[in-house]
Amino acid sequence: MRRLALSPTLRVACHRRLIAAPLLAGRCGPGASPQALHARGAGQAAAAQMGTAAAAQRRPPPPGDAPPPPSTSGRKKHYRIDTLAPGDKGRKGGDKDGRPAPAAAASFAETGLGPDLLAAVAALGLATPTPVQASAIPALLAPGRPDVLVASHTGSGKTLAYLLPLVQELRDAEARAAAGAALGVPPGGALPPPDATARPRRPRALVLGPTRELTDQTGRVAKAVGHVARFRSAVANGGGSLGAQAAALASRSPDVLIATPARVAALAAKGALFYGDVRTVVLDEADTMFDAGFGGEVRAVLAAVRGGRAGADPALPARPPARVVLVAATLTGPVRALLAREFPDMVRVETDTLHRGAPGARHSFLPVGGADKLSVLASALARPLSKRQRVVIFCNTVASARAAAHALEEGGTCRVLSVHGDMPPDARAAALAEFISSSGSSSSAPPPAAGQQLPVPPPPPPLPSVLVATDIAARGLDIPNGGIDEVLNFDFPRSAVDYLHRAGRTARAGASGRVTSLVAGPRDRTLAARIQAALDGNAPLDGVASTRNAVAAHMRPKAETLRARAADAKTAKLARKGRRGAARFVEEEGGGGGGGPKGRGAALKKRGGGSSGGGSPRQATFRGGK
User: Fold this and answer.
1) Which of 584, 626, 576, 591 is nearest to 605 (CA)?
2) Which of 92, 175, 303, 371 has the greatest count of CB atoms below 10 A from its CB?
3) How far is the C-alpha of 199 from the C-alpha of 274, rounded, in Å?
4) Which DSSP letter does residue 458 get?
């Protein structure tokens, strides 16, 4: 390992800025000078320095005198990174603060992740990052630790996009603390020492999700990464005992706590959770968090972690406010306005697939008409059940879910599992676990060898499993080992946003899937037609509405089209005047225009200027209308 000769002045700077960790680890590169290291350590946070230096070291320059400029020909842009400054109303308008945004990485090695995280990614079987991961990980490891919005379609890999850099920051803080202790650095250099290691009841990162199913899914991903990257995580939601979860926070000292807002508030009120060491707060499904009644609880947590927090020692500086990471698959106009108001300096990472259907999903809409809706459901299930595929049936209400489940159970063609809000948490968890463990295809025993006695015929294979659920399972449901083959909307979603979340349960991570929807009623027909038009045109669905007076921006006619329609409507209105005498008017024209019977038709003829040649435009319009 190469050591650099440090001057007394530079050594003092190392003690103050805690840049000794990357020097000892050799992550700043063999050609870096002490002056450059001092300048870099004075201007950047230590965690971001370690990440960017590691990424630079793993990217050797191409051979030659000077590296060629990157080529952008033939490469499709899958992401957009910009900054939401005060006064920005959304995607358009507003002033930018001019901070450079990091470019997307082509591989996980170029994102700035350390060796432990790269090994964890390899253990998960991931070779290249998805577009949202390639953009979000460098943005989250950038200097300054800004608030970041990560928005992409469901199934695009957003969980790893924020979880990997979050763990990398925790590991970098531990490395800085260890390097400072080895050099005899007094505690409290750049960061207070409690932030470097997990303590009982004091996690260093919070991940908040709106539902138990979503937090359980995130917890499984965190466990898989933690087995290799060596960090501790815990899940707290309504599915477990409050006392048991409080005891786990006290005994295990998790680095990351994944919980619902209500359970976090309950643990804090009980004195089993303290926010003093939290440096990052992740709001998963941020639009749902603010729309579904969690706004007060979320704001209470943000107020506790983003205000000025004094350290354990009064001589130490106050801890910096925690960074907020917002993750969403859909962003409506009101939610965008709220985020611009609450987080004015947020950096946005949005992919081009936001509010659009997954590339591998096929969408079909079945009109019910006057037929029995349950019979149409049974017919739609015949094909996937014959192939023993996994199917999730979504309903709008608990009563509808029970009716559909009862009808399918009477049919006897599948095993029906239900998940809805009226079920106890343990029953929902058991149903989801059974559905996840169900096999997507039937297996047969190998044929017997020659001369071997025929075995006893095996029992018939079990019936394929079908999950009937409400929208409680539309977020966070990720089925391993093949995923969900088809999503069937027994009740058409109430909005296009709900349609996107339901459809996102299939065709995840580049896989293929099918979305079938039953369409019944005028509202369903209007919304289904607009969703189908948006999907066919690869247009966003966030502005699609079911009301006739609300049309999405991409479906609105142009200004000149509206003017032409108004002119045509006015002309047609004038032509309809005198419709009662139209027959007599035509008879007079057919008779050569001679003096016929006087009446309404004659009056129209007089106003029109005669029936022979040179008629007025109004008369011509009347003739054309007739």
Assistant:
1) 584
2) 175
3) 10
4) P
Identify whether the C-beta of residue 585 lies closer than 8 Å to the C-beta of residue 601. yes
Using CB atoms within 10 A of its CB, is residue 532 exposed (0-12), middle (13-18) or buried (19+)? Answer: middle
Does an H or E element contain 346, and which?
strand 346-351
Binned at pLDDT 50, 70 and 90, residue 139 comes out as very high
The pLDDT-based confidence of 372 (bands split at 50, 70, 90) is: very high
HSE of 331 in the Cβ direction (CA atoms, 13 Å)? 22
Q: Tally DSSP H helices, then E strands, for the chain.
A: 22, 14
Place of tokens 């995130």: 218
> CA 195, CA 201: separation in Å to the nearest integer?
13
Q: Classify the C-alpha dihedral 486-327-45-306 as positive or negative.
A: negative
Q: Which long-range contacts (CB under 8 A, 24 or more apart) does 268-273 make?
A: 268/304, 270/242, 270/246, 272/201, 272/245, 272/246, 273/201, 273/203, 273/246, 273/249
Q: Compute the distance between CA of residue 14 and CA of residue 19 in angstroms, rounded to an integer.
A: 5
Residue in 474, 283, 318 with CA at minimum distance from that of residue 395: 474
Which structure tokens are listed for 561? Answer: 């089209």
Residue 441, SS3 per DSSP: coil
Q: Which token pair is 552?
A: 């999405």
- Nearest Cα neighbor of 199 from 270, 269, 274 is 274
Q: CA geometry: angle at 224 spanning 223 and 226, to 5°? A: 60
Closest-CA residue to 33 (of 2, 67, 77): 2
Dump pLDDT digits (tens) for 389-400.
999 999 999 999
Average pLDDT, the chain: 75
Residue linked to tokens 């303290």:
274
The SS3 of residue 451 is coil
Please answer whether residues 323 and 281 qualify as being in contact, where contact means their C-beta atoms are separated by less than 8 angstroms: yes
* pLDDT band at 546; cut points 50, 70, 90: low
- Taking only the tens place, the pLDDT of each residue in 242-268 is 999 999 999 989 999 999 999 999 999
- The CA distance from 402 to 491, in Å, is 12
Residue 545 confidence (pLDDT): 76
pLDDT of residue 314 exceeding 60: no
Report how far residue 317's alpha carbon sits from residue 130's, in angstroms, rounded to the nearest whole number: 39
The tokens of 490 are what? Answer: 């027994």
Instruction: Judge whether 507 and 538 are in contact, CB under 8 Å.
Output: no
> How far is 141 from 164, CA to CA, in rounded Å?
10
Tokens of 368: 């019910």
| Selection from 73-82, 83-92, 109-118 with the highest mean pLDDT | 109-118
Condensed to tens digits (0 to 9), the pLDDT of residues 144-202 reads 889 999 999 988 999 999 999 999 999 998 888 877 666 655 544 444 444 567 889 99
Burial of 259 (0-12, 13-18, 19+ CB in 10 A): buried
